[in-house]
Amino acid sequence: MIIIEKIADLQAYIKEKNVTSVGFVPTMGALHSGHISLVERCVKENDLCVVSVFVNPTQFNDKQDLERYPRTPKEDCDMLQAAGCDIAFMPTVTEMYPTEDTRQFHFGALETVMEGKYRPGHFNGVAQIVSKLFDAVQPQKAYFGEKDFQQVAIIREMVKQLNYPIEIIACPIIREESGLARSSRNTLLTEEQRKKAALIAQVLTKSTTFAQNNTVAQTIAWVNEQFAHDDTFAMDYYEIVDGNTLQPISQWEQTDFVVGCIAVYCGKIRLIDNIHYKG
Length: 279
Fold this sequence. Notes:
Blueprint: E1 2-4, H1 7-17, E2 22-27, H2 33-45, E3 48-53, H3 63-68, H4 73-83, E4 87-89, H5 93-96, H6 115-118, H7 122-137, E5 141-145, H8 149-162, E6 167-171, H9 191-210, H10 216-226, E7 233-242, E8 258-266, E9 269-278
Parallel strand pairs: 1-4, 2-3, 2-5, 3-4, 5-6
Antiparallel strand pairs: 7-8, 8-9
Helix pairs in contact: 7-8, 9-10
């Protein structure tokens, strides 16, 4: 595996390899088994696997969140090499943003709900950096985790808007033994918080059974109630949406693709997860 910091060097190296297919996994580092599952699939399905490790400042609307985001470059490189990655692209902020990126993306109703509502400007920052990375790597396929369900929908829309010839591949959520969705932020939890955070996946799983004999509104209320009696947790939202449009539904029959999406603070750490009810 080679580590590259400059876009020009990256493009020259890829051109020199003269391969048919380049696969790409964008990450913010602090890698875990969820990321590695994407990398391994990318390696399997492409001639060349590129993984970026870059903590993107423009997608953080909370400066403290940016500062405490975990950074483990040496461990990341060790994991990438073991997974068969060909290129670890690890640029500086100056390399990715030599000048301020003032572009404003518009994703309509996709960006006004859930994460877009609670983290204003987040998805514009995501679109800025992912488009820059796509321009740098020029992959045929790019791999994203389904834990960030709304982000995948935003990326697909961005690809459509910018007419990128890139296939976006969403990969299943990888979970810890407790059920907690793998996340770089999990490392910021205390041992006690990490144990308690397993409740998120447990509640989502149980809600699929509850939903069989209850309305959408009752299911949402039931999920919220499960977190109401422990001050470790603070809910941002739990919404049940059409998985295609991301818009809230009021009846199960409204769509064949029903997804429940949650964002909840465990202490000061914000965690997200989702579960499919249909589709």
